[in-house]
Amino acid sequence: MLYEMTVIHATFTGSPRYMHARTQDALTYVRKYSRPDLFITFTCNPKWYATKELMPGESAYVRPDLISRVYHLKLGKLMDVITNGQVLGAVCCRMYTIEWQKRSLPHAHILIWLCDKTEATEIDHIISAVIPNPSADPELYEILTTNMIHGPCGSHYNYTSCHNRDGKCTRQYPRDFVSESIIGSDGYPLYWRRSPAEGGFTAVVKGHQVDNRWVVPYCSLLTKAFNAHINVEYCHSVRSIKYVCTYINKGTDAAMFGIRQEGSVDEIQDFLAGRVISSTEGSWHIFIPSNRPACCAPTKRRTSLFLCGYSNGCGCAY
Predict the structure, then answer these.
(1) Of these four, 73, 111, 133, 292, which has the most CB atoms within 10 Å of its CB?
(2) Where does the Helitron helicase-like domain start and stop, copy by copy (predicted)?
């Protein structure tokens, strides 16, 4: 019996083969430059002044074209500040992928490789997980309490959208208080979180008082400069490399069900039937066609090779 198989080539942006190739690109950088140093998530802020100024009487969600263009400019500026401005250190390699949330706002997952590897003792110079002094820096305090506080979640706070079936927060909040930044036994960093008893500051968010246990790790310079949710995480263990490289190239959510003939595979139909595209993502492809929702540097080369023992006789080397 002959089976029919239709595939989407890796050159089609957003296809499963494209995202798999992107993952291999990231692992290629790991082989060349070792582990990435920083994992950054940059989320669009619909309350940016540039967005509100150009939409009198309108909300951000009715102007996806404007959201896409403003975010495109902001992301370009962020990458310029990090790479050319070297605010986090000299950068030898970078990679990012743009995704769109369920509420249609874009966000970018960014991997940064620094020329001088960041050690665990230097984490506090780049990343912070504490509420700043409202008297010393009221602007950063306002931006942080608006954009960088998780929840607060839990039945006590009447917010459980981030909880699993066991009633636990999937983001592991609230975190524990930590007297100094350390690397945990699982290889992931535990950032300094000062308790109120030790002089830590608190804030009122959504009518509830929160402390440093609810703060999403951030870089004060980037958060203050861009007035947005910019989560900065330190990559230390090799155990996190595959997860991070795969996570930023996982693609958008997709789901489908149906009955089809056994053995037949149609990747094009599967992609179209399971794809969910928001108005903001659609406007991105229309108004910013020259900018793919992914970027990496320096460039790399994929070389097709004939491999003995493979059914199709070919493979790809980096």
Answers:
(1) 111
(2) 4-112
